[in-house]
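Q: Start with the shorter request: fold the first protein.
A: Done. Sequence, then structure:
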Amino acid sequence: MLFILAQICGGIVLILTVISVHFKTKEKIVMCSVLANAVATAQFFLLGALTGAVISIINTIRCLVFYFFKKKDAKPSFIVLIIFEIVAVISGSISWQNMWSLIPILVTVIYTYGMWQDNIKIIRITTGLVGFGWAIYDIVVKAYVGALQETSQLVSAIVALCRNRNNNIKKIKEQKINII
């Protein structure tokens, strides 16, 4: 029963993360990440994947803090970034189960940096990298729907990057036409 509940949580996270990278504002991306991380926490606890669960709690808190900074039209300081990076490493070390525990720690460090940025392109790139790392971890801990979700997140991030690139090329062409 716990396994099935974990897979249902993975499905919810799948929906949230796939749509998140298509939002045009950082606030919406971050709020979607808050919800996704909260549900992922439950998923990992249900599967007994302690490091994944603990790191997901840290990620939920990080996303909330970054969201409130953005709502005040401010960027978290470099100190806030470093604190979250250190907390992720320490929490991951304390909850260490095996060598696979390194993956949630590393991808959290990468994504924390990405979320700290204001550049949506960097957020999307780090989202793709994180999706790849979490997919491997999910397979190891038997979060199979989660692995599908992370793979979808990777593909979705790539699509969003390509779509945004095409829009930028179109804008440049339009500007050239207006100049002539």
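Q: Next, the second protein, separately.
A: Sequence, then structure:
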Amino acid sequence: MIAAKTLILGGVRSGKSRLAERLATESGFPITYIATATIGDEEMRARVAVHQARRPRHWQVVEEPLQLASVLIQHAHETRCLLVDCLTLWLTNLLIHPDTTQFEIERAAFLNALRSVPGKLILVSNETNLGIMPMGELSRRYCDEAGLLHQEIAQHCDQVILTVAGLPLALKGEST
């Protein structure tokens, strides 16, 4: 059985989404998959297609690139598992949004919802801060905001897992 709230971190192609999907299935609850990606080019379209093909058809899918808190509140239930993939795409969507106030509003709403949503919640996010400092201002802000967001989320999660080469490493809570 998975913890009530799980954060899964890892690099690109680390196996974090597959692990999240496995844990969601093992929860035994009906699953709502919350996708935050936006498709801006053919490469991203292909990435999304891989995820779509892998998901069971009976999972409910909600696509929401910005208002994550609202979706969590709307779909959370004590007998349901919500799987959010991916927080760093959501963060990117907010950082590049034309209305610069959206970032703080949605971030605060998400963290507030995180504290109170019932049921199982699995959050997937890219760990981007293990390499060199990026050169561009937006890239540095992204890394800073991702790191701060992960720290806050980890405080509210029962389980935090780092995934590398398809192998999960429990940082907090039970190992998988």
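Q: Describe the second briefly.
A: Residues 162 and 169 are 5 Å apart (CA to CA). Residues 5-172 form a domain with the Rossmann fold fold (CATH 3.40.50.300).
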